[in-house]
Amino acid sequence: MENWTNEIWVAIGIAFIVGLFIGYIIVRLTKGSVKHQAKTEAELKTVKTQLDTQKAQIEKHFAESAELFKTLINDYQKLYRHYATSSNNLLGEKDHKGLFTQQLITATDKSQNEQPRDYSEGTSGLFKENKEEN
């Protein structure tokens, strides 16, 4: 250390000051990105909680709607049965002209667990027999 000249001490001082300046710039640049990342993560968490809340509300809405439709269907079935029995009692068998048929009354009494028929009677489309051939 005794052999060091003033020029070496000046170079060490300048290197120390430049190092501090570069360190300050690096910290300044990374500090902003860390804040931005934390802010983005907080926003993401907020959006996720809002999405979960909205999903729960939608599920609740459709569950309530399904229950209301079941009630509505049952009420319409009761109303139809009431009209059918009243028309039979008031008009008699001859005069009611099929307004409320027994077939429709029993059709509304089907089990709700029964699968609907999703097929047509006979063939259709390409396999349909063409009876109007020349």
Number of strands: 0
Shape: rod-shaped
As residue ranges, the low-confidence spans are none
Q: Largest sheet, described in full?
A: none
Given helix and strand content, the structural type is mainly alpha
Give the integer mean of the pLDDT values: 79
What separation lies between the terminal Cα atoms?
A: 119 Å
The proportion of strand residues reads: under 5%
Helix residue percentage: over 70%
Helix count from the secondary structure assignment: 2
Organism: Haemophilus influenzae F3047
Transmembrane segments: 6-27
Main location: membrane
Keywords: Cell cycle, Cell division, Cell inner membrane, Cell membrane, Cell shape, Membrane, Transmembrane, Transmembrane helix
